[in-house]
Design brief:
The two termini are 28 Å apart. The radius of gyration is 18 Å and the shape is globular. The protein is α/β, with parallel strands linked by helices. It has an 8-stranded mixed β-sheet with strand order 3-4-2-5-1-6-7-8, with helices on both faces. The protein has one domain: 3-Layer(aba) Sandwich (Rossmann fold), CATH 3.40.50.300.
Length: 283
């Protein structure tokens, strides 16, 4: 199953962090084997929130030289992709079922994008045979590689802000996308805004409905965890938080989003609340 996260613009909707929280919930709470990857050449920070300060060395010292997307492509070109190949190219996140495939370390963007254009569709098909869900964070806007991946996806998560101009341009400017299996996700969400999710669904009811939309609220502790490289620990610590906890609203909305996306993709990921409490109490 390929779930692709995309936004019409860069830096407004929290696309990468939105993907991280849903993938971690799917892996930790719902026990799905998840693989996280991105196809950005620059301006992406998927690695650092998961592996911390080690990711800062990726570009200069070859920290990810023997793992990551480049190594996986080499293995894929050499023959049929195996479970061992994939595991050797990924970083496993401890105490989760989530693996990170670091992005490219190439210095030539043209070379990278040409190679990706040649192999990405077949590579994704090979990867999804080895895990439950492949989460892909792609470049925003009209990027040719992104559109190739979007066309091959099972579900597209369109990441938006509460900027109505952005919503209008997305719904009118990308007609081919809205015809596909789409989930509309409002990131960095402010429930006190006039443009809350209820009003957004009302204004854009032709496209955005309860079943295919959700929110990831702005949460200071979550943002700090992203910066500190402790996002997996944050999720594990807060999945079982009490009803009085300041992070409850954030976690509950993120869980709803994950379940809705799973349902749209045809994946059963809901669990019984009693079982959830028992499992989380062991962390």
């Amino acid at each position: 199953m390929k779930i692709v996260y995309w936004s019409p613009v860069h830096g407004q909707a929290g696309t990468t962090s939105n993907m991280l929280i849903s993938a971690l919930i799917a892996g930790i709470l719902y026990k799905k084997k998840c693989l996280l990857m991105h196809t950005h050449f620059m301006l992406n920070n998927l690695e650092a929130p998961l592996v911390g300060s080690n990711a800062k060395n990726a570009g200069s010292s070859g920290y990810f030289q023997d793992v990551g997307l480049d190594a996986l492509v080499r293995s894929f070109k050499a023959g049929k992709l195996t479970k061992e190949d994939l595991e050797n190219c990924c970083i496993s996140i401890p105490n989760t079922k989530v693996s990170l495939l670091p992005g490219t370390s190439k210095s030539n963007q043209v070379s990278f994008e040409y190679e990706m254009d040649m192999v990405i569709r077949k590579l994704l098909c090979a990867m999804e045979e080895l895990v439950d869900i492949v989460f892909v964070d792609v470049c925003s806007g009209n990027h040719p590689l992104s559109h190739k991946i979007l066309e091959a996806s099972d579900v597209i998560v369109i990441n938006l802000s509460q900027n109505t101009g952005l919503m209008e341009s997305c719904l009118s400017g990308y007609p081919n996308l809205v015809k596909k299996k789409v989930f509309y996700l409002i990131g960095c969400y402010d429930g006190n805004s006039k443009y809350n999710i209820s009003n957004i669904r009302r204004y854009y009811r032709r496209y955005i409905k309860n079943g295919n939309s959700g929110v990831i609220p702005y949460n200071t502790s979550f943002r700090d965890a992203l910066c500190d490289g402790r996002v997996a620990e944050f999720v594990k610590d807060n999945l079982g938080c009490s009803k009085y906890d300041e992070n409850l609203f954030f976690i509950e909305e993120a869980k709803k989003v994950t379940e809705k996306i799973g349902k749209l993709a045809g994946i059963e990921i809901a669990i019984e609340e009693s079982k959830e409490r028992d499992e989380l109490s062991t962390w």
